[in-house]
Amino acid sequence: MIHYSVVPLDVIFEGADTYEPKFMDIEQGGIKMQIEPISGFQARIVRLYSCNPQDYLKEQYAPGTIISFSPIMETSLI
Questions:
Q1: Is 67 helix (H, G, I), strand (E, B) or coil?
Q2: CB proximity list for 38: less than 8 A, separation 6 or greater
Q3: What pTM did the predictor assign?
Q4: What residue ranges do the domains of the chain occupy?
Q5: Which residue of 9, 46, 75, 78 is 20 to 30 Å from 31, comparing CA positions?
Q6: What is the pLDDT of residue 74?
Q7: How far apart (Å, rounded) are the C-alpha atoms in residues 76 and 56?
Q8: Distances (CA, A) of 40 to 2, 15, 67, 71
Q9: pLDDT at 15 over 50
Q10: Residues 70, 72: Cα–Cα separation, whole Å
Q11: What distances in angstroms separate CA 13 from CA 8, 41, 60, one per listed residue?
Q12: How far apart are CA 8 and CA 43, in angstroms?
């Protein structure tokens, strides 16, 4: 990739080496997807894991869309 800019590369890529996204896999509306949590109950869709081409045509599941979800807390039995 070639990037032409008057802005120094150090400024453009500042923080890129320390960025560690925290992805989760969930199922919503019968569609498995990978999300990136934003806040307690909101997340951004990163990608869909579906074999059905019709799932990719649904606007509400487009990558980058903000969705509401309820995280399930794992509990261990003693």
A1: strand
A2: 44, 66
A3: 0.68
A4: 9-68
A5: 75
A6: 45
A7: 36
A8: 38, 24, 11, 8
A9: yes
A10: 6
A11: 9, 29, 31
A12: 32
pLDDT in tens, 38-70: 988 899 999 999 999 999 999 999 999 999 887
33's tokens = 């997807």
Beta strands per DSSP E along 1-78 = 24-28, 31-37, 42-49, 66-68
Q: Which residue has the tokens 């990136």?
A: 36
**Top-confidence residue, 41 or 75:** 41
Read off the tokens for 15: 């923080």
CB atoms within 10 A of CB 33: 23
The total number of residues shown for the chain amounts to 78
Amino acid at site 20: E
Give, in order, the Cα–Cα distances in Å from 25 to each of 10, 12, 20, 42, 74.
33, 30, 16, 14, 14
Q: What's the distance, Cα to Cα, between the start and end of the chain in Å?
A: 53
Residue with tokens 């997340």: 43
